[in-house]
Amino acid sequence: MIKKFRTMMGLMTLAIMTVVMSCDNQNTDTVPTEVQANAASKSRLRFVDSKDYDTSGMDSWQEVTTIPDAITQYVTDNHAGLTIEEAWLTTTGEYIILLDDDTVLVFNASEQFIISFNLEAYAGSFEDDFEEVDSASLPQPILDYLIANHNGVGIDIAGLNAEDGEYVVVLESGIVLVFDTNGTLLDEFDEDDYEDDYEDDDYEDVEIDSLAQSIKDYIATNYAGAVIEFAVFDTEDEEYLIFLDSGIVVIFDKDGNFIEEDEDDGDYEDDCEEVDLADLPTAISDYVTANYAGEQIEEAWYDAEEMQYYIELSNDVVLIFAEDGSFVSEYTEDDDDGEDDDDDGE
Question: Is there a contact between 14 and 122 (Cβ–Cβ < 8 Å)?
Fold first, then answer.
């Protein structure tokens, strides 16, 4: 469960991050009236968290270049030195203002200020790992896949997460594709569907600054030097899940009392189905024979969500393969697990 949630949060944040970063140098010239509806669907505002503001009817918004004096005066008084990058009029008469520092301001039909928030907050700590990539520089297998499966659909933004070794490609249709560095497809989802899945799982994103002081103190005392990557609240179990950069997940009750810690160690058995060795793709068997002569495949698992095979060898190495049998990565099982096995054998 932890593994699935962490993957979900990472991919969603990276997808949002790609669009936030891509628009930093956008041309802000007035958009012709006849293409305004399409422009709304490409605005960064479509990634606003629904808990902050409902953008579901955004394709019906109208971009405006003449902004009421009361609104421009508010910006001058409260956000001196900033420029209005986008301005939209919703179907309910509200004005949505995007400033060049990613601040979003909302005004009602009477031109009175309602709420503000910042798009940059959605980027989270994944910003340091993400690098925008020119679509023409993507590996050829990725470009071939797009032509074969999404022909005619433009690339909104593409990037590389160097730490995870994954390319994220966001299409103008709202489809998000994830590939490994060899260009093999790892995952595909729709931005809207993925957000729905996130909400259905009863997890609410929590701002790190808003965490209870008891949680912050516990982390500082027991995980000195660790950085909180992100935090969520499980509304079903009424628990806080704090994800650290060390891979540790620390769990607290709703009052901020420590419950337990878990290690985000990619425990694939919890999320996969065991596969009969005879049913493995030939490419996987051939790879093991060529690169691990003398080692035996002890168990094999398939993760339908990630479309990956996990192969456990007799030397405690775990190999990960894409659905077509192409090699993705490898790692050695935790030493702690091996120590536990030794203890059991004594």
Answer: no
Residues 189 and 325: their CA atoms lie apart, in Å, by 21
pLDDT at 240: 92
Alpha-carbon distance of 193 to 173, in angstroms, equals 13
Task: Report the alpha-carbon distance of residue 167 to residue 129 in Å, rounded.
Answer: 12
For 141-170, letters b (16+ CB in 10 Å) and e give ebbebbeeebeeeebbbbbbbeebebbbbb
In the predicted model, what is the mean pLDDT of the chain? 75
Residue written as token pair 């305004």: 36
Q: What pLDDT score was predicted for residue 267?
A: 53
Structural domains of the chain, with CATH: 2-122 (no CATH), 202-263 (3.40.1420.30), 272-345 (3.40.1420.30)
- Taking alpha carbons only, the member of 320, 303, 233 closest to residue 311 is 320
Confidence of residue 120 (pLDDT cuts 50, 70, 90): low
In the chain, how many H helices and how many E strands?
Answer: 8, 20
Q: Give me the long-range contacts of 132-139 (CB less than 8 A, separation at least 24).
A: 132/18, 132/21, 132/22, 132/157, 132/158, 132/159, 133/158, 133/159, 133/160, 133/167, 134/158, 135/169, 138/167, 138/169, 138/183, 139/167, 139/179, 139/181, 139/182, 139/183
For CA atoms 218, 220, 221, 226, give the dihedral sign: positive
Bridge partners of 205, per DSSP, are: 232
- Residue with the bigger pLDDT between 198 and 212: it is 212
**Which residue stretches of the chain are H helix?**
2-22, 36-42, 69-78, 140-149, 191-200, 213-222, 282-291, 335-345
